[in-house]
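User: I'm new to structure prediction. If I give you an amino acid sequence, what do you actually give back? Let's try with this one:
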Amino acid sequence: MPEKRAGGVRQFAESLLGDLMAAGFRVVVLSLDAEESDDFGAGITIVRNPSSNHTGWRRFAAYLCLAAGWRTRQSQKREELLEATHSDVALFPTPIACPPPGNVPFIVVIPDLMHRYYPGLPEYRWPKRLARDVVYRRYARNAAAVIVDAEAGADDAVRFLGVLRQKCSVLPFQVPPAIYRHRGMSVPEAASIIEKFGLPKRYLFYPAQFWAHKNHSLLLQAIAALKRERNFDVHLVCAGWADGSFRRQSERILALARSLGVAGQLHLVGYVCPLEIAALYRCSRALIFPSLLGPTNIPPLEAMLMGIPVLCSNLFGMPQQMGEAGLLFDPFSVDDAKNVIARIWVDDRLAAELSERGRKRSSELEKFDRVATLRTLISKSLLSK
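Assistant: Good question. You get back a string of structure tokens that encode the predicted 3D arrangement of the chain. For your 385 residues, that looks like this:
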């Protein structure tokens, strides 16, 4: 199980847990977080192994050992833990810095291969790009099955990892259970939950960590342009870790907002719980999602479920995920972002139409039978023993 700060990877892992339980499997969670909670639900056993969660150069050294095919003390310990759980199949929500198990058939999720598209991003400096190539290729080639979130992800796995297409199965993202349970929240209830943040009545919402690929800077430039050219006072509410390892990135965003003259329109609420996330969605004018990465993403699914209009990046698998339910824009173009923001900001009829389209699209996407797909993949994995 990835750490809580792992963003979408963590959310996808939690959704997989729910699917596995719904399919009737006995589930043991091997967590890399020493402070992992026990609230996954009845019938799930938690085994904590935080020592295998390398950081910095220790992680890079682990990647080198993996590339050389050496089994470290940590990887041996993890295999012993796996064996002690008497598991028939292991499922990795993302590859990790240890060799894949040799004693248990396994399925691996390849979240994305975006480092191949954006080698210049600070989060993809050369050590991480090299490590990702080594780790992802090793896991994908030795796995009984590879899970991706969209057809575009399968294409990337074939292209960059040399995986056979028939080994890849598409398991689309879904709304995390922690958000899904609040889908019926009313606007008055939501307003009372987020009252403590002191937010304006109308705002755009963007839940994302402050990585460069999340593209906060484009939003600030678009908002500044609307203020300068059309005297629009567009407020942006951002949720995500603003402390610890993300402090420098969040401070950089605040400094940019001040330099553009829109610091008063930027509201950082920090890390918020699922209940607060749902409330922030419900009271927002729209979700704005300019992320450069894909293939697909979870926040647009959450917004559609909550009946909130979506303004979304047009890259990779996002157009297919959205269908006709959102306004797409080029996340490299300030003008494009500015134009879609202006449309949703002033046009109530458009906002209502997109809200209805989003709910319809959300219902369509819910029809995908994830449980049946997982059952099939696990059966195939057992046959590969």
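You can read the tokens as a compact description of the fold. Here is one thing that stands out. The chain has 15 helices and twelve strands.
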